[in-house]
Amino acid sequence: MTAISLKNLDISYGHTQITHGVTLDIAAGASFALVGESGSGKSTVLKAIAGLAPQWKGDIAVNGKPRSHGIDRGFSKMCQMVFQDPYGSLHPRKTIDTTLSEPLDIHGIGNQGKRVEETMAAVGLDRRFRFRFPHQLSGGQRQRVAIARALMLEPRILLLDEPTSALDVSVQAEILNLLKRLRREQGLTYLMVTHNLPVVSFLCDRLAVMRGGRIVEVADVAQLKAGTLVDPYSRELLAANKGHALESA
Ligand SMILES: Nc1ncnc2c1ncn2[C@@H]1O[C@H](COP(=O)(O)OP(=O)(O)OP(=O)(O)O)[C@@H](O)[C@H]1O
């Protein structure tokens, strides 16, 4: 089954068109990376899928269901987004418990305390953090909270916008290992934006290279590892990333 299907997606902010005819199919259970130059529209694609960039033309379907423009509650049960900056994405005056219970409140789901504790355990957060505030946690712990919040509604798909780039290198590896384990345990589908090709090799099985709002190449990660990407810009990106290995993952 196809988890995410994008057809001829043109996304705009005001009068500026950011993406041009983005077409992609991501299989259920896959881990798919969007890479490419800064400003090429990678995050914008995730935002359009999540309903945060509502000005688009073309087709977006998630688990076979066409996405409408704007907020869609049924949709947020299937698909959730994790942002780059775990500090900015968590409300500073809400405890971890409140942050994690909120999606359950909105969707009228009970048994909240048990679900909060179970999800905290799943992301490797000790229960003593439950009633703390974000500023009382480390960057890695905050990103674990952000991932836990995304998992509260038990979605099948996570949209990951550079989920480790704001973290120290040693913490990056911990979060990448966590994401790998969660995908295996919960059969999740990932669509991830990253600048880091070693992260793609570690966590993903396919990738699309974007430039200037367009997809220039879709490839298997095996091609990335073998250095056999075809498009000239993809090859430039490969050359620029040479020698930047993930320290431990
Ligand atoms: N809310 C917004 N309003 C107007 N323009 C925006 C908005 N968000 C992003 N843009 C513009 O859209 C273009 C694509 O941005 P986007 O964040 O999708 O790129 P990206 O490929 O993810 O870049 P990076 O790798 O640097 O994060 C950029 O030119 C950016 O300035």
TrEMBL record:
<dbReference type="InterPro" id="IPR027417">
    <property type="entry name" value="P-loop_NTPase"/>
</dbReference>
<dbReference type="InterPro" id="IPR050319">
    <property type="entry name" value="ABC_transp_ATP-bind"/>
</dbReference>
<keyword id="KW-0547">Nucleotide-binding</keyword>
<protein>
    <submittedName>
        <fullName>ATP-binding cassette domain-containing protein</fullName>
    </submittedName>
</protein>
<dbReference type="GO" id="GO:0055085">
    <property type="term" value="P:transmembrane transport"/>
</dbReference>
<keyword id="KW-0813">Transport</keyword>
<dbReference type="GO" id="GO:0016887">
    <property type="term" value="F:ATP hydrolysis activity"/>
</dbReference>
<dbReference type="GO" id="GO:0005524">
    <property type="term" value="F:ATP binding"/>
</dbReference>
<dbReference type="InterPro" id="IPR003439">
    <property type="entry name" value="ABC_transporter-like_ATP-bd"/>
</dbReference>
<keyword id="KW-0067">ATP-binding</keyword>
<feature type="domain" description="ABC transporter">
    <location>
        <begin position="4"/>
        <end position="237"/>
    </location>
</feature>
<dbReference type="InterPro" id="IPR003593">
    <property type="entry name" value="AAA+_ATPase"/>
</dbReference>
<dbReference type="Pfam" id="PF00005">
    <property type="entry name" value="ABC_tran"/>
</dbReference>
<comment type="similarity">
    <text>Belongs to the ABC transporter superfamily.</text>
</comment>
<dbReference type="InterPro" id="IPR017871">
    <property type="entry name" value="ABC_transporter-like_CS"/>
</dbReference>
